[in-house]
Amino acid sequence: MAALAAIKANKAPLRGDVIFAAVSDEEDASQGTRDLIASGWRADGAVIPEPTNRVLITAHKGFVWAEVDILGTAAHGSDPASGVDAILQAGWFLTALEEYQSQLPVDDMIGPASLHCSLIHGGEEPSSYPAKCTVTVEFRTIPVQSDESILSDLKNILGTIAQTKPTFRYNEPRLTLSRPSYKLPVEHSLVQQTAAIAQDVYGSLPSIESMAIWCDAALLAAVGIPTIVIGPAGQGLHAKEEWVDVQSIRETEKIFVRLISEFCN
Asked: What sequence ranges are listed for the domain Peptidase M20 dimerisation (predicted)?
């Protein structure tokens, strides 16, 4: 906002429009950016001013949430001949996931894909064999992965277990939420232009990197808007004490003023 105020105060003519999007819900479902896109707003470039510690971000991981139901047979705890323990059966799936994790792909910019089992639910009470155990897996993804490839991999894992374990049964895996990864080539003009401006402001060329967390850049890129992420220095994201360095805020303002002036002319 300070950069926009400075541009307006300078009364320098711009050949293009500047859209300031103060969107909501970035920490959850990105509903603000999704609504913005659905309304038809488009741009030739976008900047997300996350506090990147003066690093220029051109890529980030995506994420996928998957649920898998491992099935057993409910029975009283005193009747092992009738019961099949879904939680114990899920152990085979978890072991297979650990092996699969070591084979996940690696991106030269973003780094390795990853997964972890974030939730597990099963059983009704201590004296019964659990009929179902649901495992929630979060994948942190890179560009070569897709919703379809992850579902296919999960189906293959489950099918392979079922071939060797006669009592192993499951429901088809399902995705509950998915957000794509993002990667803008370092050679892109928006990256190079911003890096040159930041070098003048910082006194040295900023590091061009990726980040492991997800942000709205991927949604903007999906509709053809090249996007970078750059912002002030700070620490304590989501912590009790969250702060940014005042001088770095001033530096970020200078970068945005110059970028707007040059990009829109």
From this structure: 58-162
pLDDT score, position 117: 97
Residues of the chain with pLDDT under 50: none
| Segments forming the whole domain that contains residue 2 | 1-60+183-264
Beta-strand ranges (E) seen in the chain are 46-48, 56-60, 62-71, 75-76, 106-107, 111-112, 114-122, 128-129, 132-141, 169-170, 174-179, 182-183, 208-211, 227-229, 234-235, 243-244
What is the structure's pLDDT at 204?
97
Within this chain, do residues 134 and 99 fall inside the same structural domain, yes or no?
A: yes
What is the C-alpha separation between 128 and 125, in angstroms, rounded? 6
CA 87, CA 80: separation in Å to the nearest integer? 14
Residue 89 is part of a domain; what is its CATH number?
Answer: 3.30.70.360
Report the candidate in 122, 100, 124 with the shortest Cα–Cα distance to residue 113: 100
What's the DSSP call for residue 230? -
Q: Cα–Cα distance between 53 and 232 in angstroms, integer? A: 5
